Amino acid sequence: MIKAPYLLYLGSTVDPLAIKTSRGIAMFRPEDAIGEFVREGGPLSLGLPQMGFAEAAAAGARTLILGVANAGGMLSEELIDDCEAALEAGLDIASGLHARLRDEPRLVAAAERNGRRLIDVRDAGSDLPVGNGLPRAGRRLLTVGTDCSVGKMVTALHLERAMRARGIAADFRATGQTGILIAGAGVPLDAVIADFISGAIERLSPAREDGGWDVIEGQGSLFHPSFAGVSTGLLHGAQPDAIVVCHDPSRTRMRGLPHYAVPSLTETIAANLQVGRLTSPDVIAVGIALNTSSLAREDALALCRRTAEETGLPVTDPVAFGVENIIDRMEQCFGESLQSSLRSA
Amino acid sequence: MIKAPYLLYLGSTVDPLAIKTSRGIAMFRPEDAIGEFVREGGPLSLGLPQMGFAEAAAAGARTLILGVANAGGMLSEELIDDCEAALEAGLDIASGLHARLRDEPRLVAAAERNGRRLIDVRDAGSDLPVGNGLPRAGRRLLTVGTDCSVGKMVTALHLERAMRARGIAADFRATGQTGILIAGAGVPLDAVIADFISGAIERLSPAREDGGWDVIEGQGSLFHPSFAGVSTGLLHGAQPDAIVVCHDPSRTRMRGLPHYAVPSLTETIAANLQVGRLTSPDVIAVGIALNTSSLAREDALALCRRTAEETGLPVTDPVAFGVENIIDRMEQCFGESLQSSLRSA
Q1: A170-173, strands of its sheet edge to edge
Q2: Which of A252, A334, B41, B121 falls 20 to 30 Å from A323 in CA-CA distance?
Q3: Is 70 exceeded by the pLDDT of residue B342?
Q4: pLDDT category, B305, cuts 50, 70, 90?
Q5: Domains, chain B, with CATH or none
Q6: Confidence of residue B68 (pLDDT cuts 50, 70, 90)
Q7: Chain B residues with CB inside 8 Å of A189's CB?
Q8: Nearest to B257 among A133, A232, A257 (CB)
Q9: What is the pLDDT of residue A262?
């Protein structure tokens, strides 16, 4: 969908948090990130070679990635100028901003003039199928959560990387804007029409015959009153063999909903397995991913140990401690399947 | 949203099943249905006064209702001719057809010329809120189901009618095209963007202070792999005090999914109460509605009795036997609330 390699746009962005998508690409798709574009005086860098648009195109870049967040998600004049110049230099543009590239006439004209594409990753396709729930070949892991924004995407990306490092065929499947820009493809599930949620995931993660795994990025939470419908359809469409439950132990109330308590891990595991069994009768939990960034390292390790004792599952913070213990558990539970994907990888 | 009273369009429709929406309006909103439009030679009638468009407008009609289904959901030339004539006569047009009125230039021009409205009830609003799950005033009943198309709309309409007949303030809240045309307002839930499912229902059924009930039309089933996400978001947004479970005892496999068995009533009740408790901790089941149209009357009555013994709930076929036993149970469970709505009605 999005052609690699990429030039990552930082522009004159000042807030380090606003470039987290670009940072994610540099971290999880280093082979695709051949350079960064920084405006004169722009204070941020990802440590990549700094390039102009023509220079990047000459170096092989195919797409300028707008992996930046800005106030209101609007396209500034400066950003439009830069995008137009990138199109003239022969690059496609992919954007996760709320404002759509296709709504900016100057960019539409420049893209047409240069035979380049404008890719708004917040747009869901209009031809999605209704889910059918039919069993399909291949192994799938879904990251689920106690709440929104507890590390489901990052956990899925770490799992993909660690599985590949062991020689297991594994592919991250993105369901949100940031994940789509990192993966270069995916479905922005929050933009899909309600009747097509599970069908969109069935298409995103179709049958695979190579014995490998799809590692699907979860969204929301079965316990989030705003978004549980999305999480339910995603769980049914994913037909996961395995789930990994993500949790932020510093959070006591649901994101954006202070009148709702965060559910326990035990409740979250039980509910996801129960709902998941409708389309994947043998689904199991294989691990818990905690975001312990607010804790000292020793406290974080102690919390992982305690949580493992309470749940009987491998527990880790993927960013701090990796996900090897979860992959170990997967090898115990799916040994034969992991072996076969190893052979075919 | 849709202005009453209505002229119901039958045109030259031949298939009695194709006018079920118009039949529903005539049955559940008789005070709004002042006439029917039948083309010369058209074989069907709902027994209403037959009128031309000018005649209907003179009799007070405000809207022509296209409560017809046709092959492919397209607008035929004949239908467009008739709609244009109706607009010229001063009527709005409301349509549940898949093809949109707003996509037909002749109709757009005629509506503008005459200051009339074209209402496509399959269009969801673009300004829907995200659900917040905050407790809100008022009593709500939601019809849920073991499957799609098992009588959730018809049951809700019968409940509204029977509650009103007892002097209880009650309003049907529509979530599908047919229901919206019957009620004159509502939200076409299958067209809503995934992130806004529960928010759309919170807006459809806002806080009410008169002690009365909203009777909300359910959609899909928690056990339908294609649509359970919609049903989940609807259940959370509805915050129901009470659910009525609808079921077609002649069905053994899920609609459109022969590889999925229909769940039991016991499972369906338990799952809906469990999921529903997230936003409505005290939700209870108050009855079961069976579609017994495939059974002889005696067998239907026996099935209702047997199901009541098994579940401890009042069981009926709303069409064949009414819903008085369910309202009785509601009076037992919500006596004070029903009394207060009685006083305010």
Answers
A1: A170-173, A213-216, A139-145, A242-247, A284-290, A315-316
A2: A252
A3: no
A4: very high
A5: 6-120 (3.40.50.720), 139-344 (3.40.50.300)
A6: confident
A7: 194
A8: A133
A9: 97
